[in-house]
Amino acid sequence: MKSPRRIPVVCGAAGLVFALTLAAAAGASELTPQEKKLIPLAKQEGSLITLISLFQDLTVRELEQGFIKRYGLGEDFKYTNIRKGTGPSLSMARTEIKANRLTFDLIMVAGAGFFDGAEKAGAFLKLDSGQWQFHEAAAKKAGAFYRYPDFIVGSAYTFQPIWNVSCPGMEGVNITSYDDIANPKMKGKTIVSDVTKSSSYSFTTLGLEQAGFDVKGMWKKLKATDPLVAFRTEGKMQMVINCERPVDMWNLTGRVLQAVEKDNTLAKKLRWGVYKEGQVLMNRQMAVMKGAPHPNAGKLFAEFLLSKEGIDIMVEREVSIISYRKGYVAPESVRKYALDLSQVKVIGIKDELATNKQFKGMREEWRKVFQ
Amino acid sequence: MSTKPISVGTAIPQPARWASLFTQENVITSVVAVIVAAAVFLPLLALVVSSFRVLDDFGFSAEWGLGNYREMARIPIIREAFVNTFAVSMGATALSTVLGVSLAWLNARTNCPWREKLEPFNLIPYFLSPFVGAIAWHNLASPQIGLLNNLARWLFGTTGHIFDVDNIWGVIWVTGIFHAPLVYLFVVGSLRRMDPSLEDSARTTGAGLLRTTLTVTLPLVAPAILSAMIICFVTSAGEFGVPFKLGAPYGYPTFTTEIFTYAVGDDANYQMGAAMSMTLGIITAFLVWIQRRIIQRREYTTVTGKGFRPNIIDLGRWKWVALGYNLGYLFIAVVLPIATLVLVSLHGYWQGYIDPAKMTFSNYGRLLFFWSPDNIEAATNGIANSLILAFAGATIAMILAIAMSFMIHRTKGLGSRLLDYLCVIPIGFPGIVLAMGVLITYIKTPIYATLWILLLGYITRFFPYGQRNVSAILLAISEELDQSSRMAGASWLTTLKRVTLPLLKPGIFAGWVLLFIIFLRELPISIILYTAGTETLSVGIYYLQEFENEALTSTLSVIQTALLLVFVYIFRRLAGREALTA
Fold first, then answer.
1. CB pair distance less than 8 Å for B443 and A263
2. B124 CA to chain A: closest CA distance, Å?
3. Which of A344, B5, B57, B480 has CA 20 to 30 A from B449's CA?
């Protein structure tokens, strides 16, 4: 028969071991009570599926490792990301919500209208986030669209001009203004982003308009440069690199880093800038789905993406991530590609939802000029 | 031996009338017919219904109405896409007809050197992916970065460009050269089987070679040419990969690219996509119905002993020009594109010029070695999934095709005619259209987001191709053979196994191989129905193009092309010269 004194000692020891295990798994930063509560549930689920258009394969692998390490989920835990473009992601999500048949746990994408509609349709699980408190103040100040606890903002981003100085006629080019892009010397060299296919480009256009910029005038000047109209940032980066069209008005510095990683000679050829008229900041909303196959893993992953460890991985791999986390600074290895918001004129979208409703009219005007 | 006398007036028990309906033949063929009818009609019904549902601004509720059809008429880009689709179909049909008929005539009716050796090579473009062809031609003949233009600039010192495929002409060019073998297949068999006596009469009365060919030979095979043209027109109208790469990004959308944009683009308005799908599908299905009506007028029974030996025309010195023409087609349609893809794939990041110092096989490692830490899962998944879908899909589709062929050609009455139309419908609707219907129909079922839904999409869309192969041979086999077996006491199933199927073997194998190849390179259905883990080869190529770069895209394109060529070679060795030919 066990001594009555031994039981509390055993429990105490077990508790200490458990706490130490958690602490070891926690890595650099502490776990919140909400994370600790979710860990065993997520471990039991054993798997996570996200719908995030941003993440490359390498990013997913590193996030998987980081996620497992931070929470001690075990090497058997599997993380899969469904990568489609923003539009196809929203399309898939809507279709599955309406059919009440979810194949993913968490979605992170720029889509104010979608999140509004989905929340009203009761498609999201309520979050109880310990990490969101470090983001909320900055997100609110920036005018980001969120409705905690239904959906929050995972990260922000902005488009910058990128060009290739090694292409014919591009020596000495420096772009700091939309006037530089629309310069007649750029004829046959420019890429114009297809606003009809992307919420992000549409938000950027309307954001500039809200800030008082003459967008329609810019379109006319751009049209005169005989631009190529294109959509995906990866495809446009390929065109910039092979000189098919050496200037892209809206791309992501993360694509530059990804290209340099594949061919380091590109570091000398590619340049990027900041618009003096202002950089429009857009937000990627994030939510966990009601009816998800692994809801607890989804909630825990949301916490991870808001934690410093998660943000570090995303920034190091994708770069073009602007975090609202208080006091966050990008890792040294990628700092030169990251944007220092304190050094630029930032334009926030006033009322993302109302702006989303203006897409249709704006796109029709754009089509009249470019299509 | 004692026997019981039968007394007068004793009735011999007869089986119930209803029991005679449940024969092996009726049960098996009815079950198959119900499966096929459900597979074909349910998605189309879903599309019809969806096309009359008009989505609100945020996409979560819809109401009944004609709004989608009104929007189609109103939006300029959709009207433009319609015009472009018509232009592509007409242009590609014209080009493929000229190429296909001329190659068929050279191969079947002239003394062009090496014609027997060249025939299987002439068919290669048909077995390759047009989407991959478009990727290759973009890298070959894009105005700024195309290799041919770079070569011309280097050789002649010019600053502009000679070739430009990034437009509607490029779409016509690539679609046309990839469909030329289809026309070839339709026409070459007719040219070989035609009665030479009419040509002999024309030559006897003094008509020259050209006049005889134009006024006697070609009109005799006009039904085959017309059939081929209609099928080319319909297939070109439904082509997605080529305009997706060479047309839409450069301001030349087609109906299929716009359906894709509306269905899965930013607006995610698949109801609008459904309305557009119905419009395109009705037009193409009508054209295929016309084509079938033309073919039905032809006599098919040839397994009776009477055969023809066609005249072989002596071209004289012109035979070397003919050989040059054939080799030129192969060089342009096969060698150049494949060589370009290989060159681009050997660069870490394609910068628009060949740099031997930077060539590497690293891209192949990333896409083939699933254990590699930087492998791309969409590609490695794609290879495995495509092989599974091709093997399983071709087998299941051929089983359905055999049963359908029996029902159509060995039974009489309204049912057989209805089933015949059932086999026409999937051919008439483009893959992307049917895939949307399949998605809407089956999203709430367990097969959603699995390989099964892709299998269902593939089989529904393509089983008529296998059915056509089986029907062609079944029609040539006299019914008397089946009837003799039945009269000798064999059951329907025994007759099928021991008499009919052995005779059908060439058609079954040819159909299986055709479907295998088609499934291995399929894109429009896959791109609508895939999810993470169920990518196919073509989806992998699309994924790399959208999310990675040209070098990786070309690498997976080379891998797909190599796989297709290897399988074509294996199947020809297994089945002999007759496989994969007319």
1. no
2. 29
3. B57
Q: What is the pLDDT of residues B220-269, one digit of tens each?
A: 788 888 888 988 998 899 899 999 999 998 889 999 999 888 877 766 78
Answer whether residue B345 shows pLDDT above 60.
Answer: yes
Angstrom distance (rounded) from CA A10 to CA A90: 51
The amino acid present at A110, given as its one-letter code, is A
Query: Sorting pLDDT into bands at 50, 70 and 90, what band is B15?
Result: low
B22 domain residue, yes or no: no
Task: Return the structure tokens found at A371.
Answer: 């299509």
Contact B443 A118 (CB under 8 A): no
Strand partners, A288: A106
Instruction: Identify from A237, A263, A269, A370 which residue to disrupt to test chain B contact, counting B C-beta atoms within 10 A and taking the largest count.
Output: A263
Query: Tell me, what's the pLDDT at B300?
Result: 42
What mean pLDDT comes out for the span A248-255? 94
Calpha distance B119→B451 (Å, rounded): 35
pLDDT tens readout for residues B104-119: 999 988 889 998 888 8
Residue B351 to residue A114, Cβ atoms within 8 A: no
B306 domain residue, yes or no: no
What range defines the domain where residue B193 resides? 66-298+316-345
> Would residue B386 count as lying in a domain?
yes
CB nearest to B349's CB, from A85, A98, A263? A263
| Domain shared by B103 and B35, yes or no | no
Handedness of CA A336, A341, A344, A348 (dihedral sign): positive
**Of residues A96, A117, A243, nearest to B352 (C-beta):** A243
CATH, residue B287: 1.10.3720.10
| B219 plus B115 within the same structural domain | yes
3-state secondary structure A281-308: EEEEEEEEECCCCCHHHHHHHHHHHHCH
pLDDT in tens, A168-219: 999 999 999 999 999 999 999 999 999 988 888 999 999 999 999 999 999 9
Span A28-156+282-339 CATH architecture: 3-Layer(aba) Sandwich (3.40)
Q: What is the dihedral of CA B284, B289, B293, B294, to 10 degrees?
A: 10
CA distance A311 to A135: 12
Under a CB-based contact definition with an 8 Å cutoff, are residues B560 and A77 in contact?
Answer: no
pLDDT tens-digit readout, B485-521: 878 888 777 877 787 888 888 778 888 988 999 999 9
What is the fold of A160-279+343-370? D-Maltodextrin-Binding Protein; domain 2 (3.40.190)
pTM of the entire structure?
0.86
Q: Do A371 and B546 touch (CB under 8 A)?
A: no
Q: Are residues B334 and B381 in the same domain?
A: no
Task: Tell me the mean pLDDT in the region A321-328.
Answer: 92
**Pair (B400, B547) in one structural domain:** yes
**Closest Cα of chain A to B552: distance in Å?**
11
**Do B254 and B135 lie in a common domain?**
yes
| Position B307 in a domain | no
Decide if B546 and A82 are in contact by the 8 Å CB cutoff.
no
